[in-house]
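User: Just a sanity check before I run the rest of the batch. Below are the structure tokens for the first item. I only need the designed sequence back.
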């Protein structure tokens, strides 16, 4: 099983950061055209994402369970990393500072543990890092 964790601090209050994060995948500029929110309620989010992995076009769907403004728990329901879980947590670090942590995990029984970790370290960590950087940019660009 692959398990990863990345964290970033954003100079915005938690509620504002959460409001932008819940628009995923809209704020992620490196996703390809067609990425969108398929449906959304107060506590759920269904998304479709189009991207490139290792230069190859790919797409996936995911469901997010929202706990306003504390967390969003995404599970990939279709695609290459079907079953991947990404737990986004939002923790205030003062009146205008928020720490965002994304913890990821996945298990692919058809892969060896070494290949699973390699895909996680190279693909999942890279994408997670870029998503956090884009979330920070989106939050801090619009005061």
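Assistant: Here's the designed sequence for the first item:
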């Amino acid at each position: 099983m692959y398990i990863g964790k990345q964290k970033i601090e954003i100079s915005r209050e938690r509620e504002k950061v959460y409001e932008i994060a819940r628009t995923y995948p809209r704020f992620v500029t490196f996703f390809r055209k067609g990425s969108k929110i398929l449906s959304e309620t107060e506590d759920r989010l269904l998304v479709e994402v189009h991207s490139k992995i290792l230069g190859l076009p790919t797409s996936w769907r995911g469901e997010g369970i929202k706990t306003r403004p504390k967390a969003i728990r995404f599970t990939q329901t279709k695609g290459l990393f079907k079953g991947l879980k990404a737990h986004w947590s939002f923790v205030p670090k003062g009146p205008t500072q928020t720490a965002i942590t994304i913890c990821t995990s996945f298990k692919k029984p058809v892969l060896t543990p070494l290949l699973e970790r390699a895909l996680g370290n190279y693909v999942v960590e890279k994408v997670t890092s870029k998503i956090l950087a884009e979330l920070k940019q989106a939050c801090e660009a619009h005061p």
